[in-house]
Amino acid sequence: MRLILTLVALLFALPVQAQDALLLRPERVFDGIDPRPHTGWSVLVRGNRIEAAGPDVRAPADARVIDLPGQTLMPGLIEGHSHLFLHPYNETSWDDQVLHEPLALRTARAVNHARATLMAGFTTVRDLGTEGAGYADAGLRRAINEGIVPGPRMLIASRAIVATGAYGPKGFEPGVEVPLGAEEADGADLVRVVRSQIGAGADLVKLYADYRWGPGEPSRPTFSQAELTEAVEAAHSAGRQVAVHAGTAEGMRRAILAGADTLEHGDAGTPEIFRLMAEHGVALCPTLAATDQITRYRGWDGVEPAPQNVLTKRSAFAAARAAGVEICMGGDVGVYAHGNNALELELMAAQGMPAAEVLIAATSGNAAIFDLTDRGAVRAGLLADLVAVEGDPTADISAVRAVRLVIKDGQIARDERTAAR
Ligand SMILES: [Zn+2]
């Protein structure tokens, strides 16, 4: 007994092990805020934080030094609109995923999707609904946080909320119960469902302000103004943001007036609606990539002029930017392959947004919109979520695909410098 006590006392007497330090020396640093990259900067990581970044950072004696010649070091990218529980619709239609894929299968896929996302340099995702996979996103988030499987930090919307009758799958005998892509709620019950999803672990609330009531119909509003306003109020009072699917002008208008934090899609937004968005400080996740990919699945070969729905999406993006709406980087990935998140960045740049602005949207911009004050920039004190890519993505946005090193929470998650050889 005395020996044990002595050993325990000895253990406590040992000095605390200093956390490992890592000095990164890239060709340049894109810091997430300044559109111009900094040449000659080094970044010192200690534990899970950035300890220093700048031109005069010296390596402490204990630091491991990693040289990244020809590469740009930048903040870990933040995906603003993902569905880790979906896989591309040209593999399996959305209806068939929701109706016929067992939860365990969908979860197994989601584990792979999370890994692919992190390996692509996306260290945070805002996952906007499991689309029928219940609260499995909360389990995945926990598995990632506990280090059981690799993946990005997840902000989750869990089941998401739709008006009764508005969301699919559809086309069954009336009264037959089929799995749905989200939880139905209306009227006063809507507030109860907002609270129950938050209670079950949702980091934010996702509402659908409009949708196609029947197959082949155009989208029309779902929730009333009063319903949206009450739902947003209940979420905000619980400290949760609200993301609203809105493609029609009227759905967008109601969501803006309700106090939504972000709108998703915005296809039929008018200049007046985008002005209202800007006035109310509501950000837009344009999801250019989802429209592009779905249209290709239906046969578009990418030749211009693009089909009308693609042109509509592009002009909405341009109108939102012209009105001064803050642009979130969110592609609706899951409609297309996880790990191909860069597609949205490329399409934003192709529509005239300067590459550096696109990168700011995908880092400090999304961090600010989602109220994530601990990440999104290469700054002392922030989380050490970093990615190094070959080349200069502020000159050519597609350089974000040439990932060489991914660091999440101070740990190396991908090191292509050795893995590829
Ligand atoms: Zn979505």
- Associated small molecules: zinc ion
As for the number of domains, it is 2
Strand content: 15-25%
Say what the CATH topology of the largest domain is. Answer: TIM Barrel
The Rg value, from CA coordinates, equals 23 Å
CATH superfamily of the largest domain: Metal-dependent hydrolases
Quick tags:
globular; 421 residues; hydrolase; 13 helices; 4-stranded parallel sheet; TIM Barrel; OTAase-like; 8-stranded mixed sheet; 34% helix; 2 domains; single chain; binds zinc ion; Urease, subunit C, domain 1; alpha/beta; hydrolase activity, acting on carbon-nitrogen (but not peptide) bonds
Can you offer a commentary on this structure?
It comes from Brevundimonas subvibrioides. Keywords: Hydrolase, Signal. Residues 72-412 form the Amidohydrolase-related domain. With 421 residues, the protein is α/β, with parallel strands linked by helices. Helix content is 34%, strand content 22%. The strands form 5 sheets. Strands 1, 2, 3, 4, 5, 17, 18 and 19 form an 8-stranded mixed beta sheet that branches. A 4-stranded parallel beta sheet has the order 11-14-15-16. It has a 3-stranded parallel beta sheet with strand order 6-7-8. Strand 3 (42-46) and strand 4 form a beta hairpin. Helix 9 (288-297) runs antiparallel to helix 10. The protein binds zinc ion (ZN). The site of zinc ion has 4 residues, from loops.
Kindly summarize this structure in a few lines.
About 35% of the residues lie in helices and about 20% in strands.
